[in-house]
Each structure stands twice: as structure tokens, then as C-alpha cells.
Amino acid sequence: MKVGRLQSGSVALTEEPDPVAGPGEVVVRLAACGVCGTDLEKLRGRYQSTGRIGHEPVGAIHSVGSGVPGLRAGDRVFVHHHVPCYTCEVCRKGDLTFCPTYSSTNIDPGGFAEMFRVPAENVSRGAILPLDPSIGWEVGTLLEPAGCALTALRRVGFKSGDSVFIVGLGPVGILYGAIARALGASWVGGAEIAPLRRAAAMRAGFAMALDPRDAPELDRQVHAATGGRGVDLAVAATGAPPAIALAARLPRRAGTMNVFGLPEAGRSLDADLQELYLRGTRIVPTYATTDHEIRAVHAMLVGRNLDFSGLVTHRVPLERLAEAFDLAGRPDTAVKVAVTGPAFSG
Ligand SMILES: [Zn+2]
Ligand SMILES: [Zn+2]
Asked: Which of 13, 74, 183, 209 has minimal CB crowding within 10 Å?
């Protein structure tokens, strides 16, 4: 089968043996897998990488190993690549995505492969979610990033009625805003350099999508929208240092700033500490998601409390994986890019 990997700084397709489902395991034929910003960061060499890429996969079950109840060949599923251990101190405190072994669990060989194996530890801890018939493959690829947004909203203590401003309106920034709205946000605004993505955010229900390079105008608009107080929650949904600095100065007094997008390695937060101190700004980093939030997002989609249609702007077959990465890295051309596999059929 064909497998997409990172090899010496580029995206390569290799030919590898088909995976086999051992006891407790499941093998899935790929229908589609989104290209995530963190995949791009791995390609650029700015994020730790083992060469494995693709973690937003949906597909049809190909085979099921012994001792796996309730799943059958042909089932349409979403698969979550990481699972917490549920037994360590961090897990017992409820901070599941910060479990020390969370990111060592993974699908094999990754989400950009014609087939992938789901290890027994993932299967037994709820990583396989049957997709409702109303959820198409493309929307299915958005479950993982949407789960990350919901995990963040829960971790920062978001409440219905809060105002939210999101800096960086890539796919996950837009999903974040859509979920905040569905959970009762009183106002959701955002900032993004690329006009195509600002337009996508407006279609997703943002009250405004501004150009962050015009700082005086941005300040004026946020001021007007929040009665001069600032927002309850400002989100840095990109790792670009100016975006993080912008998000740090938008919260109201005793408001919250969420470090949500992956920051570039080695970067520092450029913020006036005394200002943060006196304003009581809570800075909360959040990371990844678990199947609990992914199931919650799935239920919201099935219940029509959320609508992600139109966010996937490009579908590219696995054979042209390098082209998919190129597109995903061009914010003026694409919002979300989904790579399609053999189980994709319209
Ligand atoms: Zn991702
Ligand atoms: Zn744990």
C-alpha cells in the first residue's frame, strides 16, 4: 500500500506492506484525512517529528482482530490517534491530553496511508467512533480539530454569554468560533491576514473578521463590540509570535487568553508582565483533544447544532500528497485540505 511520510524534509510516498489486525486491533481503509497546521510545521522542521503524519482520519473498517466487540468490516468510522492512560496522576486530575503517555500512542503508520492499524490500546480506550450516516467524509475529517477547540473551551472555563476573539482564522480557528457560538457565546470576532479565510469565518457566523495588521482599527472594533472592556476570552489560534502578542492584550480585566495554536519552538511570549499582573489576565495553554470531546462535537453535528459545511475547500488524492501539503500552506488559496484514500467514494 501507499504511505505518506516525511523523509529528509519533504513529503514522500513509500510502498509498504498492508497492515494486519492483531488481537484487539482494527485496520481501517482510508477515506479522508485532513492536513493539519501541525503536519505543516513538521514538514517545515519546526515541530518534533518521527516522520509520521496525518491524525484526522476517517475511513471504512477493513478488518477486525479477535476480541473487539461491536465493530465490523465496512463500518464508517473516525479514529483518534492519541489516547490517555486514565491511570496516571495527570489523568486522574482530569487533564487527559497532558498524560505523559498520551502522545506516544498512535495509529500505524499514520493517517496518510491507504490503510492504517489502530493499536489495541487505542481501540480499548474509545478511539474508534462510528460515524453517523449524516456525517460525510469531509466533515468527518474536521472532528479532530473541532474536538481540540472544544477541549480548549472546556479547559479555559468558557461560559455561555462570554465574548470571544480569535487571532488566526485557519480551519481550527474558524471551528473554534463556530463551537463557541453553538455553546452560547455572546459575540465572536476574529483576525486573519488571508482574505479568503476571513470570508470563510464570516460565512461560519463570525460577527467580524479583521486584518490584524491594522492594529488601531482592530482595537477600535473590539472596543466598540465589548463596551470598551475587552473580550472574556482571546484565543491565539496560530503560533505566529505577533498573533500571540495580540491575543495577550485583548482580554478584559481578569479575562482569559488561550494559547491554542502550536507556538514555534523556542519562542518567548512578548508581553508586559506588569500589565498582565495588574489586569489579572489568565494565560491558559491547551493541547489536543480526547474522544470525549470528539463524541460531543459529533453529537452536536448530528443534532444540527453545528454546521461545518464548506470549510473543506480542497480534496486531493493520496497519490498527490505533496500537492495537498503545498495547498494547505497557502492561506490565500485554501481553507482546509482533505487528502482522500481508497474508501472515499463521493
Ligand atoms: Zn491537528
Ligand atoms: Zn495518564
From this structure: 74
